[in-house]
Amino acid sequence: MELVNSIREVSGGRHFDESDIMEEERSSQLNVLLHLTNSFRSTDPRDKVFALLGLSSAGRDQDNWPEELAPDYRRPLQDVYAAAAKYCIRQTNTLSILSQHTPTEMARDTSLHLLFPSWVPRWDLADSTRRISEFPLQWDFDGPRILKEKPHKASMDNGVEMDQNTPLGVLRLSGMKIDTVNSCLPTVMLDDTRFQAGVLERHGDYLSNLLSQLYRMCKKHVKDVTYSFDFTFFMVTTAGLEPGLYDAPWSARSGTQSDFESIVNPPQEESAKGQTPLSNTENQSPKHSTESSLPSPRSSRGQYQNCYIALLKRLMNRRLFITSSERLGLGPAGMMSGDTVAILFGGNVPHILRPSEDNRWQFVGECYLDGYMSGEAMEGRDSSKDEWFELV
């Protein structure tokens, strides 16, 4: 029950029954447990892995305990974490463990930074940055059943292609380049280090002004959008949330639309009245939709919690970027112009990579890129253009 209580605490106090959690095999996979216990502390940082093994599906049969994860406190911390990350990739046949990557600028503040390969998550560091590929709860009539990732499918159903014969600190994966980062906008940061309920709303005025500036900057340079620019900006800044989806905590979709419109198009800039640009795009054709303003009366702040502002948890500690093909994306704070956007097979999201010496790559982090989150790059894929990325 300790695992159940821990999940309950991390998940905001929701009620869990032990059978609800343990009934689903995937909820006890090591990568999920590592995600849930990110904020937990341990005297020896190796126990962030070793202590979870007995709770995970991998540790139930101790006669078949994964040899690479056998507790050995003589092993360097970076080796323990690298072995755990590679094990999770093999166990799940996905790259979801890479979404637990610690922001580079945060890892640099520790003496171990130079010892860790760029792709290995730093579970010894508590990180409040919300993942683009998350593990929300899926509910049914009997309560929570499974912890699952957000429904992005950048590489569709292509499984991981990983070279098994590399040194422990090297991760060699197959994938494809899809774009290059042309320019990066300022990182969105707040004084609060943890983004719990209500924190974003307390910074509503600051975020409103900042988003208004970012909106205008992006609109000048982003030319290639899937739907209207307004809808694209909304989707990118929320990392793929749409008003009314399961993890948007409001039933009034119109409130979110009104709040977004009041930020990016203040009253003095309001034009003709009509359909909101965030309306359902089901009947719109990509790249041919018409932008229009929100119907009046305009909602008044204070009548609802800032709906759009409170959806921006995944924008915090990240920065918007524009690619060479003039697409809009959201990536890690440590990314730079010239970085490569790649889809690594088995990944639900694109990743930012940086060229290094000897045709190797530094892993920068996960990203959201408009037009590439649902497998678009896999349509008509030419396998002759696939390449190996050796991450160090």
Radius of gyration: 21 Å
Structural class: alpha+beta
Question: Low-confidence runs (pLDDT<50, min 5 residues)?
Answer: 10-24, 246-253, 269-304
Q: What's the mean pLDDT score?
A: 79
Order of helices and strands, N to C? HHHHHHEEEHHHHEEEEEEE
Number of helices: 10
* Assembly type: single chain
Share in helix: 10-25%
Percentage beta strand = 5-15%
Largest sheet: 8 strands, antiparallel
Number of domains: 3
Q: What global shape is seen?
A: globular
Number of strands: 10
Distance between the termini: 38 Å
Summarize the structure.
The chain has helices at about 1-10, 20, 30-35, 45-55, 75-90, 105, 200, 205-220, 230-235, 255-265, and strands at about 135-140, 145, 170-185, 320-325, 330, 340-345, 350-355, 360-365, 370, 385-390. The chain is an alpha+beta fold and about 400 residues long.
